User: Fold these one by one.
Assistant:
Number 1:
Amino acid sequence: MAPIKVDYSLYLVTDPNLVPDGTTLEEQVEKAIKGGVTIVQLREKDAETKDFIDRAKKIHEMTKAAGIPLLINDRLDVALAIDAEGVHIGQDDIDVATARKLLGPDKIIGLSVNYVSEATKAVEDGVDYLGVGAVYDTSTKIPKQPPIGISGLRKILSYLSSVHRYMPAVAIGSINLQTARNVLNLSAVPSRSLDGIAVVSAIIASPDPETVSRELLQIVKEPPYWMSVVKDRTPPAIIADVPTIIAKVQETTPLVHHLINRVATNFAANVTLAVGASPVMSENIPEFADFSSIENGSLLVNMGFATPEAVEMYLAAITEYNQRLRPVVYDPVAGGASTLRKEAVKALLNRSHFDIIKGNEGEIFAVAGEMSHMRGVDSTSSSSMEKKVHVVEGLATKEKTIVVLTGPQDIISDGITTFVLSNGHDYLSSITASGCVLGSILTACLTVSLEDRFLAAVAGVLLYTIAAERAAAQPSVRGPGTFVPALIDELYLLRNMCAKGDSSWLSAAKVERFVLTS
Ligand SMILES: Nc1ncnc2c1ncn2[C@@H]1O[C@H](COP(=O)(O)OP(=O)(O)O)[C@@H](O)[C@H]1O
Ligand SMILES: Cc1ncsc1CCOP(=O)(O)O
Ligand SMILES: [Mg+2]
C-alpha cells in the first residue's frame, strides 16, 4: 500500500511525441511542476532502456525537489533502477500481484481501468489508485477501448462508493481547460467524486505548461460551479421574485444563441424579441468561440434536426459555452422518437453540462433513460403525476440541472424542490414549436438569473403560459392561426408591464409544490 498520502489532483502524464519544437520534455515537465502538478507519470513507449533511465533520473530530480511522486509507466525495471515512487500499469501490462511482489508494499501501483469489472479486480488485487478512461476520444495513444464518457466514469465512481476502503481515482482522456469542469463535476455521484484529472497533451504540448497547469489545478480545487444554494421554496416566495427576472431581461437584453430547427426559427426569434432579449441563429462552428465570449450571452440547443453533423455542431457549441461558464439550455426535441435521436441524447449528455433541460414527457423520459413513448415530436405517453415527478427529480439530481417537463401541466424541479404549474391554453398544443419557443424564453430568463436557475425556469414558464391564456381570450383570436400573433403581442405587453412594476397579471398563476410520498 502506498506509504504517503498522495495528492492526485493534477496528474501529469508525459508523452515525448507531443513536445513543441524548440523545447524539451524535461523543460515542459519542469514548468508544469512550477504550475502545480501534484504527480508525474513518465511514459516512454519507444525509448531504449538506457535513454529511458537517463530521462527518468533527470525527471526524478525535479519531482523529488518538488516533493511529488514520480511513477514510471509499465517499465518496472526502470522504476526499480531509479527508485521511483511507483508504477502505472495497463490491463495488458505486468499483472498487479507480480508488480507488488517486485516493488514491495511501499511503492505506488496504479492501474488503468475502463469498466467496473476491471475496477473490481483492481480493488481485490490491492492497487493504490485507478486511472479511469479514456473519458473522451484521445489522440495520445491508440485506444484499445472506445471512450467511456461521463456515464462510464459515473459507473466506476458509483462502484467505488460502495467499496469498503477508499480507492483514489483519476480520469484520463482529452481532459483540458474546456472539458475539465464537466469531467470533474458531471461524473460525481452521491458520496464519491474523482480525486483528480490526468492530463497529457493539454500540458505537454502547450507553449505555456506552467499557466495551463495552474489553471487546471484551480479548476480541480474550485467547488462545482453550478451548485446553487437550494433554499426551501414555496410558490408564493418564488412568484414574488418572477417580475424581477422578467424586468431584468428587458433591462439587459440577453443574447440568446439558438441552435434550432427550421420549423421554429422565425417564431423563436420573434418570441425572444417579444420578451426583450436578442436572438442570434448561427450553426457556424468557427464563430462559436466569439459568441460564447459575449457578456450576457447564452446558448439554446434545440435538437429538432438531430443529424450526426448537427450533433457534432451542438457539441462544439456546448464545449465553448461550458468552458466559459455561460448558460446552456437543452431541448431534446423528439429525443425518444428514433434510435438515432436516443443515441444523440446520450452523446450530448455524456459531454455537456446543461443548466436547464426542457421537453415534453416523451422527451424527458428519453433523456432520463425511461421508456419513452413518442410519435415524431409529440409525446404519446401519459404517466401519473407521481411517476413524472419521480423521473424529473431523478434526472435533475443526476444531471445537476433544472428539469422542465411540459404538457397540460408543467413540472419544474431542481431535484429537491418540485413545482407543478397549471397555466396555459389548449391552443399551445395546436401550433408547432410551442415547446421550442418556451426554450427561447427559458434561456433568456436563465441568463439573468444564473445564481437561481429554478426561479428562472418558473419565471419563463409563467410568463409564457399566462401570456397564452390572455392571448386566447382576445376577441380577435378564433383559432391557432390568429393565436400565434396574439401570443407574441401578449409576451411583449406582459414584459412591458413588468418593466413598469405592474405584475398584476401574475395573480392568474396556478403553482403548487409537489412532494413525492414514496
Ligand atoms: N393541453 C395543454 N393545455 C395547456 N397548455 C399546454 C397544453 N399542452 C401544452 N401546453 C403548454 O405548451 C407549452 C409546450 O408544451 P408541449 O406541447 O409539451 O411542448 P412540445 O411542443 O415540445 O411538445 C408548455 O408551456 C405547456 O405548458
Ligand atoms: C415539427 C418539428 N419537426 C422537427 S422540429 C419540429 C418543431 C417541434 O416543435 P415543438 O417541440 O415545440 O413541438
Ligand atoms: Mg418540443
Number 2:
Amino acid sequence: MTLQHRLSVVGDENDPNLDNKTPYEQLVYLLNNDQRYLKEATLNKRVGFYRIRGDLGTGNFSQVKMAVNSLTRERVAIKILDKTKMDEKTQKLLSREIKSMDYVKHPNIIRLYEVHETLAKIHIVLEYAPNGELFSKITTFGKLQETECRSNFSQIVSAVSHMHDRNIIHRDLKAENIFYSGKRIKVGDFGFSKCSQVGEQLSTYCGSPPYAAPELFKDEHYEGRYVDIWALGILLYFMVTGIMPFRADTVGKLKKCIIDGTFTIPSFVSDNCQFIIRNLLKRSPKERLTLHSLERSDWLEGQEFPKPLHSFELMAHHALHSSGTDEQQTIKCLNELGVTSKVIKECKDKGVRSNVTGIYRIMLHKLQKQKYPYLADDSTTHSSRDTSASTLSPSTIDGYSSKKKNIKTKVCTIL
Ligand SMILES: Nc1ncnc2c1ncn2[C@@H]1O[C@H](COP(=O)(O)OP(=O)(O)OP(=O)(O)O)[C@@H](O)[C@H]1O
C-alpha cells in the first residue's frame, strides 16, 4: 500500500526524500520537514501523528477534540489539558487517570491509546465514542424505556464491577461520562478515579454534587466503592425518569436534600426497578446493594453482563515477545507500516508517551474489534454525534440547568 493510501494528509509527491521510505518513516519525515504539516502543528490542527478534525466539547479542566491518526486512519478523541493551569493536585489526578485506564480492560470502558506532551499542553488520546453521551440522549429525547435501561445499565454495572474487581474506583459516574459507541455503552472520564483497596477510607471529596452520596457531605471519611454504588442509583433513576431524584437550585440546598435522603419514584417505574433504586440509594453505605446482587436481581434477569477482556500486552515492546496471537498480528501490521522491532525497542522507555504505543494500541483494538463480535462497533445507532449530539444545545433537567451552570460543576472539595 502506498503512502497516499495510508496517510490522511499526503506530502509532496515530487519530494525525492519520500522515496524508499516506509509509511512510518515518511510520516516522521513530513512532520519534521513538510510546510503543511508544520503549519498544521502551529495552528493547533495537529498533535503528533493525529490530525485534529473538530471539537467534541469543553469540560471543566479540558477541551476534547476529534482527530484522526495519520498512519492508521482511526478516529480518536483527544483530551487537551493546559499545563500552565495544572497545579500539583490536578497533576496527581492526571497520573491516576492514566494509571487507572491502563489497569482496566473491559469492552464497556473507553480505552487509553497514548499521552502526548508538548511544552504547554498534555494530550490524552482516547478511544472515540461516536454516538454521544447518555446525558445528551436523555435531555434531548427524554427518559429511556425500561428495556433499553436494562440493557444499558447492565453494561454500566459490568464496567463498574470490573473496575472494583481491579480495585479502581471511579468517583465520577454520571450520565455525562457514559458514552455510546453504536448501541454499546462506554464508561469514560477517569479523571477522579483512584486505586483503593476494600475497606480503605478516603477523604478527598470528588464528583458532581447531584451524584454525591450523603457520606461525602457529612462524614470525614468514605469508602470509594459505596460512593460509586450510590452514583449508580442516581444514574438509574435519571435513566428511567429523565429527572434527578434530588433537586435543588443551590449546592447547599441539594446537600440538605441528599443528607435528608427522601425521594419519590414515579409510579410508571416498574416495582423491580424501584426496588433496585431504593436499595442503591440507601443512606447507610453498607446497606446498599452490592454489584453482585445487582447482577442477580429480578430486574436485570436475562441481561448480558459483558465480561472483561482476556489479558493482553499494552506495550508494543512487550508484544514483541508475546505468544498471544492478537499481539503477534498487531506487530505484523506495525512492521508493514514500517514500525520495525528496532523502532519499537527505541521507544520502550517512553511507555504510554510514545506515538509507537499509540499506533500499537489503536491497531490492536482495531484487530480485536474485527475478531471478537462482542467488541465490534455496533453500527445501529440511535443518533449520530456527527450530525446531532455534539451540537446539542444543553437542556434543562428538572431544575438543573445544563452543563454550563455550576450544578454540573465538578468539585474536588465539597464544602
Ligand atoms: N472518548 C470520547 N469520545 C467522544 N466524545 C468524548 C470523549 N470524551 C469526551 N468526549 C466529549 O467531550 C466533551 C468534553 O468532555 P469532558 O469529559 O472534558 O467534559 P465534561 O464531561 O462535559 O465535563 P467535566 O469536566 O465535568 O468532566 C463532552 O461533550 C464529551 O461528550
